[in-house]
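Task: sequence design from structure.
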């Protein structure tokens, strides 16, 4: 999913930058985490799986309070929003995707774009993988 070779390749291609080493996955407490370590920067993707849709929506509400709600992100999963630091949060059914970009510089990639644009782009890439594109 977020650490699989295809997702990594698609993210590398889209951002125009590759991590210094292949990202590795961690599975703990129904959360799948993958950290992309770049030279002098990091980006962490995680997916939280919840048992029910009600719990998933409640979890996302909690993230809005914790991370801050900087506005809706259109056409990326379900209920997507930008966090105060530019990170992206969205869901597909009972899985919540968070693209944390607080460890990136204000502008990142080749060509360089804002952290918020990186987060939205990466979320879109992951959702394309989930849809099988």
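Answer:
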């Amino acid at each position: 999913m977020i650490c699989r070779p295809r997702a990594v390749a698609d993210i590398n291609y889209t951002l125009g930058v590759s991590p210094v080493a292949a990202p590795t996955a961690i599975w703990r407490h129904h959360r799948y985490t993958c950290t992309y370590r770049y030279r002098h920067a990091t980006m962490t993707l995680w997916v939280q799986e919840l048992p029910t849709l009600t719990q998933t929506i409640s979890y996302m509400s909690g993230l809005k309070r914790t991370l801050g709600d900087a506005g809706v992100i259109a056409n990326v999963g379900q209920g997507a929003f930008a966090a105060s630091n530019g990170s992206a949060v969205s869901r597909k059914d009972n899985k919540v995707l968070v693209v944390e970009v607080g460890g990136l510089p204000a502008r990142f990639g080749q060509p360089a774009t804002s952290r918020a644009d990186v987060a939205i782009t990466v979320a879109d890439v992951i959702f394309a993988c989930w849809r099988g594109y």
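The chain has a mean pLDDT of 93.
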